[in-house]
What does this fold into?
Amino acid sequence: MEINQIKNSIKLIAQMALQGQQSVTPFIQGVPGIGKSDIIRQIKEELGFDEIIDLRMSQHDDTDIKGIPQRTNGTFEWIPPSFIPVIDNHKFEGKTGILFFDEINRATQEVLQSIFEVVHDYKVGGKPLHTGWFVVAAGNLGYEDGTEVTELDAALLNRFLTFRVTEDDISLKNWITHFADKNEVNPLIINFLQQEPRFLYYKKSNEGLITPRSWDKFSRILNFYPRDKAMDIISTLGPGIIYNAVSPFLKFVEETNKKPSIEDLLNMSEKQLKEYIKQNEREDMYRILIEFVEYVKHQNNFTDKNYKSFKAIFDSLDDDQMVAITQSTVITDSEGTKKMIPFFDKFFDLFEEEYSTEGSYDLTKLKSTDEIQDIREIYTKGSHLLELMCDNHK
It folds into this structure.
């Protein structure tokens, strides 16, 4: 199951937990570096939980969960740690959150025994968790993905709703749409992986493992330095992060540097731009538009000539590419969307008649309509972009 499908499924349980009705604990079991922890953070933001308590179980012992016994009025009771949100822990009053047991199957058997009560009864030491707290766990596959884990016995596994993610479930399109765009992964990386998707999750014996997490880490380094430093960064730091992808990535960046920049394209004459489009394959034009969208997010004050250049590039795509470019660069990135909407507002103001099958149309009314199907019927190439604009104007 793809990671975004797992997230949507887990959100159904998380919504129940917000109302104090969690009935089962989800367990994401999958290959390393694919974003298991990231989807928990996304769920926190999307559903409005106040906080996450992220416990890496390989680093804890059993008293870190159940606490220690304390004598009170002649009897002993368990006193959980201060970071466990049980009802008599007043610092969590009025707050909702996620109690996340990460790397759960790297824990010792003693630690695993201590969490039985938490994942099944949502209690610690007999004390219930605060209402509105969601319990979820994640871990690796073990033998299948070459990781060292503690096998969970049948009794503990029976307490989970288990989601498995294997290498076959990792999709480049899914990663770009649901992670890369939201986290502003460097466009050089996105464009490279579109040409060489095998390197998104690359695993061969005696060669370093490359995962989506590897690309995220490397992207942060590339984003820190100017674009003209990319070749040096890839050469010096790449071998320790992206291993065997270094050589093809360097070749890709070298070829990219020989091509006109987005700014160059926007300022070409109409004749030059049309000639450039003729000389390039459809995949190249799609790559250019991805770079262009990233450019728009960081620039302002576009001229009418710039909009005409964008239109020439946009019109060179087929319908499938138009859908892909809008889904991967607009709807999935809330901050990016805020920057893109004014650009597309102006774009459709300039070229409204060309994209409407019925001539002039009141875009102001259209942007606020609830009848998205009407938009599809009226617009042809502009329909997907405008539909996204409408969704985000609501």
